[in-house]
Specification:
The protein has helices at about 5-10, 50-65, 95-100, 115-120, 170-175; strands spanning about 70, 80-85, 90-95, 150, 155-160. With about 180 residues, the protein is an alpha+beta fold.
């Protein structure tokens, strides 16, 4: 038996299955810096199958309840789609490709995997951390919230936490 199981069981409140709501205010916030003279881009909602519409309603209700999103009238807008996760559930994805083309790319580079392995050389102990809903643990700077709008048949919504799929999100998560 794994010797860590009793420790995990004893401190189970630290290992949340889901985020209860908005993250606390932090010094670092996600931001979207646009290229000069960028204009809002708006793309209509994609057509969805009835099962996807049902899943969308459930995920929207959950994100609204947690405060991750809110209704919006922003002139920006991106369509959504679903991607199937390994275990079969559906992940809501916002197609930010048009917004990403207008976003200034962050100059902070993530470490290369071979460099990380070099740093691990000679180590005896390793650990792994999985930030559940990592992107949703960082709030968005107020002026940039309207740029995250996504369009659905149920309405238009904007993120209050860092969305999956926007340029520079991995770097923001890394430095935060």
């Amino acid at each position: 038996q794994d010797p860590w199981i009793p420790v995990v069981c004893e401190y189970s409140e630290v290992f949340l299955e889901d985020l209860p709501g908005l993250p606390p205010n932090r010094e670092i916030k996600f931001y979207i810096e646009l290229v000069p003279r960028a204009q809002p881009v708006s793309i209509p909602a994609n057509r969805m199958a009835p099962t996807e519409m049902e899943e969308l309603r459930e995920q929207l209700d959950d994100m609204l309840f947690k405060g991750f999103i809110r209704s919006s009238t922003s002139p920006w807008g991106a369509p959504i789609l679903f991607a199937k996760k390994a275990e079969g559930s559906l992940r809501l994805c916002v197609d930010y490709r048009k917004l990403n083309r207008l976003t200034v790319k962050n100059k902070y580079h993530l470490l290369r995997i071979d460099e990380l392995f070099d740093q691990l050389g000679g180590s005896r102990f390793f650990s792994k951390i999985d930030l559940r809903f990592g992107y949703h643990q960082l709030k968005i700077r107020g002026d940039d919230i309207p740029k995250t709008i996504f369009r659905t048949r149920y309405g238009h919504f904007e993120f209050l936490v860092m969305p999956f799929g926007s340029t520079n999100t991995p770097q923001h998560l890394w430095i935060s």
